[in-house]
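All the exercises in this workshop are built on plain-text protein records. Sequence and backbone structure share a record, each on its own labelled line. The structure tokens are whole numbers drawn from a learned vocabulary of backbone shapes. The record below serves as our worked example for the rest of this section.
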Amino acid sequence: MAADVAAGLALLAAGITSWARAPRSGTGPLLALAGVVWLAGDAWSSLAYAHRGPLVHALLTYPSGRTRSPALAALIGLAYVDGLFPDLAREPFPTILLMALVVGAAMLRYSRARGLERRALAVPLAGAIAIAGPLVVAAIGSDADAAAGWAYDAAVALTAVALAVELLSGRTVRAAATGLVVDLGDSQEPQALRAALARTVGDPELEIAYHVGGQWVDEAGRRMALPADAPGTRVVTVVEDQGAPVAALVHDPAAIRDETLAQSVAAAVRLAVANVRLQVDVAARVREVAASRRRLVEAGDEQRRRIRDELRSGAERGLADVSRGLAGLAADRTGETAATLSTLVAELEAARGDLARFAQGVHPRSLTEHGLSSALGELADQAAIPVVLEVPSRRFPATQEAAAYFVCSEGLANVAKYAEASGARIDIDAPGQRLIVRVADDGRGGADPSRGSGLRGLADRVAALGGALSVDSPPGGGTRLTAELPIGAGS
């Protein structure tokens, strides 16, 4: 009797406490009603089983205390009918059937739930199983009837306390909010935000719209129309920051019913949106810097071509005219005068040659007119050591061709100065959307790219075009200079 009274008091206390501290939930009043009827059943035998109705009602509608399912409402009604008719409640078959249906319904609710809701339904599911077990044992009838009665009292008391603690502590909501923060810790990308929110609230079809420029867009930046609220299907929750809308969640109406969870979700969305905006701003600045570097490289190449053309059309042509004039004078003179003029002609021709090579180094004409294959052929012919070429005859974007040429030029210049090599090799390959340039020699290796300004300048030029330059130079193993440049659309 003491255990029976204690179970009733546990139901009543759990119900009153839940009712007082969580008035929006219907679980508290149901537990309180079950406790009152339980204690009344100790005084009047006609009410001995009447607690089954509100107890099953609380278990199958936790945490709201309400249901929209006709099947669930019918099952709850059966529990009330069973409890109000003692003769029916004492029959084994109705009791076993009722408990089987209650446990099955609790399991079905749990299996269909997702995220936060599923975690919250673990307690009523465990309570339904714990309460159904002793009742089924008692209904079957055996020597364990007394133990079943004790177990039933304990199961009811523990279930009532567990439901109240779960409802009032907000443990599930806090765990969900913490999990949301952890999920968003590694990435603030829009896709990560949507996935994290969907997992947290248990709605895999959740959508996020962002308010940008006076219109709603999805995570890919496409315009998006918010659906009209339709109770029972999808609802829209607008998240505001300082009174202005920043995002909208399109979700299942049952997904964000808890007020604490709704606040945590809104805070996470505001933080994530702010971080995404910062990332977009940083990315835009990075793109602008990269575009600026590229424009500098292209402007430098254009300036090189202009200087080359001016040298050839101006200084070199002037030297040629002077050389021809002196040669004509030398032809008309004899003796020492003719010899002196011939010497001047030879010096002018040498100066012309130096000027032509300088113009070639600034930006070779063959590179502009005939492409990389022709320009590298001329470069190899002028090299101090034999050079093997493997270069495709096709053309590439002008800026990438110029970068590739100067990588090869600088590479061969370093081979001549430092490598003590007997030969070198240049390989140009274009797999997919990349241009790969390799300059290798059989010299002494041990090159340190950080000690020379030439390779550092090349690395900057290649990086400005979105590529990368690497040097592999083990001591005694020769040097391999590799540049990789994008040549696809928009490169």
